[in-house]
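Quality-control log, excerpt.
Job 1 of 2 completed; input and output follow.
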Amino acid sequence: DPWASFPTADKRDMQAELAKAIPGIRFTSGYRDKAYNASLRARGYHPSDNSEHLDGAALDMLPPPGKSLAWLRQQVARYDPGARLLVHDGHLHGGFDGYNSAPKLGGMKGR
């Protein structure tokens, strides 16, 4: 195998890490393809044309019941100070360095 001598990069599992750090956190979106991103736009959402979801580098999250999006933003920032966080379209969008393996969630599941 010609690739055997190359080191493998450790992949972060942000969904598992955040679920452990913030009990009750809910994940609504992970990896999305361009067609699904376009379908969100057609339904009135505002996904970015260069969304980190297209690279599997982002998760959309909701707080546990009884907690606010502002609270969730604080918790995620405390866990990963380098996270790019934006409260947007009724959820918390998080982009994470070293993370490119977001699962298909929500409407992308099964695609």
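Job 2 of 2 completed; input and output follow.
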Amino acid sequence: ISYESGTKTPNAGQAINQYGFVATDKQSVNVAIARGNERIAEEMQDLRKTRDFTLTKLSQLTALSQGYLSQIALEYQIPRLKTLHSIRRTLGVTISWFFSPASTGDAEML
């Protein structure tokens, strides 16, 4: 594994390793993407349940297929930013809700 020495600011496509430095190997990038995807799936499910939305209802309100939403929820698909905007609008949160640490448990309402 190689790391850019002393760098703590990631560029696009780079991940931070466990020591707080930019990791330049593909495995670390893939791990960061997987963790982000897991966070999106968890937040989408929590928000859906809080608002009493089924996947069918979310599908109807977002114009996204139920199968595609299910694949996002199961972490089989990484949603595009445009997809996240559609989901966040419907669920009433900002886009940052999917990426922020879940420390307070309060949704940023629009």
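Post-run check on job 2. Helices lie at 26-50, 55-62, 66-73, 81-91.
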